[in-house]
Design goal:
The chain is mainly α. The chain folds into three domains: 3-83, no CATH class; 107-165, no CATH class; 174-278, no CATH class. Helices cover 62% and strands 7% of the residues. It contains eleven helices and seven strands. The chain has helices at residues 16-30, 35-48, 57-70, 74-106, 110-114, 124-144, 147-154, 178-184, 199-214, 230-244, 250-278, and strands spanning 3-5, 11-13, 54-56, 174-175, 186-188, 191-193, 221-222. Strands 2-1-3 form a three-stranded mixed sheet. The protein has a two-stranded parallel sheet with strand order 4-7. The chain has a two-stranded antiparallel sheet with strand order 5-6. Helix 1 packs antiparallel against helix 2, helix 4 runs antiparallel to helix 6 and helix 10 (230-244) packs across helix 11.
Length: 284
């Protein structure tokens, strides 16, 4: 059995079917498909090496190119050269993937510590996110974008924004419609949540919404705290009714209601700060 010496130095059995398929793919690139020609060339090269023990893969590729030229298939020959370049590009990317993963996991490369100011590279969840990003970038380069586009990005002719998320179904930055979610109720992880009636409840719900949204995207998130303001009035009315039911005069009702409201607002601010700074999502 004739052996083929691959680029990595390994040996494989000669397989004319692989030559046939590579030629067909090249023909499809230029719209000049001839299964007969592809079959003849693959069989020709098979016969050419039937009496040798080993042949180099690059020699086979040169012979395929020369046979295409000899048979008047110059457009296919150019496409075949392009196909070979793409395959070489993809093989190099596999090496790049392994190198980037090793670099990130070692924790010794300064790049990963400064790659994104919003991410702490020492947090486990961030490392997992970086791992996913490296693999996603690899898939995008290999299966989504054409080699010429990737090369242009590499040479800074163009810029593919957030390439490490291109293969994933995630959104980028978000301006959360907190007013709608608080006033009309919302769903978090399939659980329906009704409109809150107190500022403390509304603030807690807002932090849960923020965490849920940021777990499903990779960009920044923005809210406006003015959407919490109406619930200050709701809490005040709650305390007013509480003390009115105790048959207190209006001055005492207002005094005690404002005291309780002040404490609830302070508790709400504290809850918001604690929740936002302590709860984690997929990006750490």
């Amino acid at each position: 059995m004739v052996k083929v010496r691959k680029r990595d130095g390994s040996l494989q059995d000669f397989n004319a079917e692989k030559i046939y398929k590579a030629i067909l793919k090249s023909m499809k690139f230029c719209g000049n498909v001839s299964k007969k020609v592809a079959l003849h060339i693959s069989e020709y090269i098979k016969d050419l090496h039937k009496n040798v023990k080993e042949v180099n893969i690059s020699d086979i590729e040169i012979e395929v190119f020369n046979q295409l030229i000899a048979r008047g298939k110059k457009d296919v020959a150019r496409a075949y050269e392009g196909y070979r370049a793409i395959r070489e590009f993809q093989r190099n990317m596999d090496t790049e993937l392994e190198s980037q993963l090793s670099s990130m996991l070692s924790g010794q490369n300064e790049y990963w510590s400064t790659e994104n100011s919003n991410k702490d590279a020492d947090v486990v969840t961030t490392k997992r996110d970086y791992m996913a990003g490296i693999v996603s970038k690899h898939l995008a380069k290999k299966h989504i974008f054409s080699p010429d586009v990737i090369q242009a990005d590499k040479e800074a002719i163009i810029k593919i924004h957030d390439l490490d998320y291109a293969a994933q179904h995630l959104t980028n930055c978000c301006l959360i419609n907190l007013e709608d979610m608080l006033q009309n109720g919302t769903n978090i992880n399939g659980v329906h949540i009704d409109k809150p009636h107190r500022i403390l409840t509304a603030t807690t719900l807002a932090t849960q919404v923020i965490t849920s949204v940021t777990s499903s995207q990779y960009g920044g998130t923005t809210i406006t705290l003015t959407h919490l303001a109406p619930f200050v009035r709701s809490s005040y009315e709650y305390y007013v009714n509480k003390y009115k039911n105790r048959d207190l005069d209006d001055s005492l009702v207002k005094k005690f209601a404002l005291e309780d409201l002040k404490k609830e607002i302070a508790d709400s601010v504290q809850t918001f700060n604690y929740q936002i700074n302590s709860m984690c999502n997929s990006n750490g």
